């Protein structure tokens, strides 16, 4: 059985036991989180939500809080005596392990 969940503005296809990296959640490592925005349940028979599947949820355990790779933005203005600007950004991420898919 698999589920399609929505979190952090993105959609993920998950199966029990999957480990995925998502946008930062406010939970400590070892805590259990529940995703209630289940868009689809699949397996032998498919259930598509309108827009979500009523009563369905996905339970996951937080593995770690981490940060993504550095993304560098570089601006250079052409011609002589122009200016340059370099900025960086690292996204805060959470790694979770899916433990259970509840079909409601």
UniProtKB/TrEMBL annotation:
It holds the Pfam family Ribosomal_L21p. One of its GO terms (cellular component) is cytoplasm. SUPFAM superfamilies: L21p-like. One of its GO terms (molecular function) is rRNA binding. This is Large ribosomal subunit protein bL21. This protein binds to 23S rRNA in the presence of protein L20. NCBIfam families: L21 (TIGR00061). Belongs to the bacterial ribosomal protein bL21 family. The lineage of its organism: Bacteria, Pseudomonadati, Pseudomonadota, Alphaproteobacteria, Rhodobacterales. Keywords: Ribonucleoprotein, Ribosomal protein, RNA-binding, rRNA-binding. It comes from Thermohalobaculum xanthum. The keyword Transferase does not apply. Part of the 50S ribosomal subunit. Contacts protein L20. One of its GO terms (biological process) is translation. The keyword Repeat does not apply.
